[in-house]
Amino acid sequence: MHLTNSSLLLTPRNRHLLRHVALAAGCTALFAVLATLVQTGWSPLARLDQGWVDDMHRYAQGRRVWVASVQMLTDIGGTITMRTLLGAATLWLWLIGARVLACWAAAQALVGWGFLWALKLCLDRLRPHFPDPVAHAGGPALPSGHAMASVITCAVLVGLVWHRSSRGGRITACSIAALTVLTIGWTRVALAVHWPSDVLGGWLAAGIVLGAVTVAVELCRPGALARDVRRVNWRTRPRVQRVLVSQTAPAPYDPAFDPAFDPAFEEAAERAGDRPDGAVKP
What we know:
Distance between the termini: 33 Å
Number of helices: 12
Helix content: over 70%
Oligomer: single chain
Largest sheet: none
Order of helices and strands: HHHHHHHHHHHH
């Protein structure tokens, strides 16, 4: 029994695509469940939301320095800051020639912003309300824009450094990203301007956007994201190292054409047990 056709379905590119399909589909299902529970007023979730926000509001009353510190953190990690970081990353990618990757990063920000407000307007959930609030925020509550923007931005930035980092660097980047996301989400509840389920909804909505945008780009431009990742790796390599590689390689590296991402080349390399790492074989 020959498994040639089956093996072709499990190329690295297809596995990458399936992971993001699973991410978008899983987050969509979980968000739908969360939104249904919120809209129907499921009592365990309502008690959790109300109890947590009431406790945080009581603690914040009379503690002006604490409130000011939390407000500073939430402002630093706000949607404007996150979109500015994504804009800077997009501009840098465009300037070094990674145009598809730049469009992918820009689409994450733009689609995320549009999807956020579509969900807010459709669900139209009220924010926590107190006679003596310690902070103010406008618009519907679900999902949290701060939480959603922080996940999208941190995921994109970690993705950009992932292939250039060692194992220790990846752990550090993921730890910083996770701490940032958790801190920003916590500040929204600590200031009693969001329910805890709003923050969870923001994280799930970010997963939908990250997965869906990546799948769309991969389907429109198959392999282009991977080629741009290699272009970034090449352009960010130290100049001396690039010169040495150019002198010793059988042919000059051309980022616009990388046989490592040609399906036929991948199939032959996998059968031979030799997966090239960006090198151009004669």
